[in-house]
Amino acid sequence: MSQGGESVDPGEIGPRLFLLTPGAASGRDLATSLDPALAGGGVAGVLIDTDDPRAAADICRQRAVAWFTSDLERGLAHGADGVLLDGREDIQAARDRLGDTRLIGASCGTSRHAAMVTGEAGTDFVAFGGADHPLSKRLVDLVGWWSELFVLPCLALGRFDPHAAGVLAGAGADLIAVHLDGLEPEGLARFRTAIGS
User: pTM of the prediction?
Assistant: First the structure.
């Protein structure tokens, strides 16, 4: 991840937010809502899956926040800082194309096996849950299990409120997803407070 332009291990700076942006939004509209959201700090990365990510990506660069996409070709075409891939994709092939300086995350659902396999394949972080996954005991247990046994950072993916974010931070999540759609900047402040960011 990036903080002040330097690479930072999320585990070294405590839990951070990872923003999920609406893919249907235009790049310019997304940039307008993204700028105030990033102004408050506490965000390690932003997932941008709009067809034209350039305006939103520029905001991330200005704020020294890493931006990601779930599409490898889009990431290569637009110079993304990283990709968040499905854990079933070929991680080594993605690494060969992205090089060593860009980040690769792998979404592993609720599978311990998939997380271990992708971690061994060379991902920079693993993600548990899914874009609309609610807080659940299984997700909390997965995050806790991973953080106790592995150094590789983990992202808790889902549609969470600040309370859920705080629970996941307490379980050991390095990164916690927050959906940007419909969320005011003041709402992000509540997430930052909940995770101690």
Answer: 0.91
